[in-house]
Amino acid sequence: MLTPIRRALVKQVRSTFNDRSKGERPVARSDHALFAPDSVVWRVHGDVTSMMAGGIAALLLQMLHPKALGGVWDHSDVQSDMIGRLRRTARFIAVTTYGERDAALTAIDRVRRIHDQVGGTLADGTRYQAGDPRLLAWVHVAGAIMFLDGWRRYGEPRMSAGDQDRYFEESGEVARLLGADPVPQTRRAAERMLTDFRAELRTDERTRAFRDFVLRAPAPSLGEVAAQKLLMQAAVDLLPHWAQRMHDVRPLPFSAPAIRAATFGLAGTLRWAFAHEAYR
């Protein structure tokens, strides 16, 4: 009885992350990836639940920067295909973490070429360019902190400070290859950078619209509605308190323990389902 349940869960997750209409298949782990199998980044990026909660939180945090939001709003289909964007981001992370080195470098080069074509002007006349090293640094640090904190909350609550620093050191390699600068090498440096960027963050009508696109995105299937709603709540709960206030998405009082307990249960169930799978 357990095997059919396990298979059904694996199938459901794979269909969520892989667009079968495009022939996409799960990314196989390679011993010749950018990172070694014993790397911290393999550990952090390999958990479905914490990466989904962290990924949604990362997107909400990143888009508080008007230049980051401008690039996504003006040059992507995010308004009509939020799930597709999350899927593409997840695949990029999977390929650059676990895929063959050549495939990872090809994916990075493709994103750099896309960034070279993305630029524009904000409503206040400020110019932005997706390939700007400082803007890429913001996108990286906001994402890395949310992914790591998702893993710490739902995967490894007692993760050592040393391993957290190793995560930033390792994940920073992809950021540097994308052109980001500066790239923090430790948890402390990442938190300091996040603080330094706060003066540049803004909320307006477009930010609020983007927030709603993310948090109200339709689930890929009826069977995923409950899980998606839970992950959205977990993502909001994961955000720094100041970011929750900026997005006006503060959780209801005393709801955090229930959200965390349910998400922890979901994480454990999916780890059980994928216990013998060699894919991410």
> Main sheet: which strands, in order across?
1-2
- H/E topology pattern: HHHHHHEEHHHHHHH
What can be said about the biggest beta sheet? Answer: 2 strands, antiparallel
Number of strands: 2
Q: In terms of per-residue confidence, which ranges show pLDDT below 50 for 5 or more consecutive residues?
A: none
Summarize the structure.
65% of the residues lie in helices and 2% in strands.
Question: Mind explaining what this structure looks like?
Answer:
This protein is mainly alpha-helical. The chain is 65% helix and 2% strand. It is built from 13 helices and two strands. It has helices at 2-17, 40-45, 48-62, 66-75, 82-98, 101-116, 133-154, 161-178, 187-197, 205-215, 225-238, 241-247, 256-273; strands at 119-121, 127-129. Strands 1-2 form a two-stranded antiparallel sheet. A hairpin with a 5-residue loop joins β1 (119-121) and β2 (127-129). The model has no long low-confidence stretch (mean pLDDT 92).
